[in-house]
């Protein structure tokens, strides 16, 4: 749906199966997901979306985000064709997700979490619990 490798994909979703599906969809596109809390003030959400420069926002319900296309996850699933996930060759430096903090200025600042961080976590769990 127009999301390319390396782009940011904002997600306005509560913890749900739809959120997991959206995160996996971002991974399938080799895009980094950006969790956005819909309870945040509109100004903050707009600034995060401006910084993301995303072609689309995925959400669990219709959102009014001026100037920003929003896809409702359930509707996108209903109209998309299932396909095999492509095999991705990751070197660990790719952005997996971006979290926005308020930083020292109070303005949203994105912090990139690389795929190697997840790999290290999974590796630790495997060593610890095996």
Largest sheet entry:
4 strands, parallel
What is the annotated CATH architecture?
3-Layer(aba) Sandwich
Structural class: alpha/beta
β-strand number: 6
Question: Which CATH class applies here?
Answer: Alpha Beta
Overall average residue pLDDT: 83
Order of helices and strands: EHEHEEHEEH
Give me the number of helical elements.
Answer: 4
**Any idea of the CATH topology?**
Rossmann fold
Report the β-strand fraction as a percent range. 15-25%
Rg: 15 Å
Low-pLDDT stretches: none
Return the domain count.
1
**In what order do the strands lie side by side in the largest sheet?**
2-1-3-4
What percent of the residues sit in helical stretches (DSSP H or I)?
25-40%
What coarse outline follows from CA principal-axis ratios?
Answer: globular
CA-to-CA gap between the ends?
A: 39 Å
Pfam family, one: AMP-binding
GO molecular function: phosphopantetheine binding
Protein name: AMP-dependent synthetase/ligase domain-containing protein
InterPro entries: AMP-binding_CS, AMP-dep_synth/lig_dom, ANL_N_sf
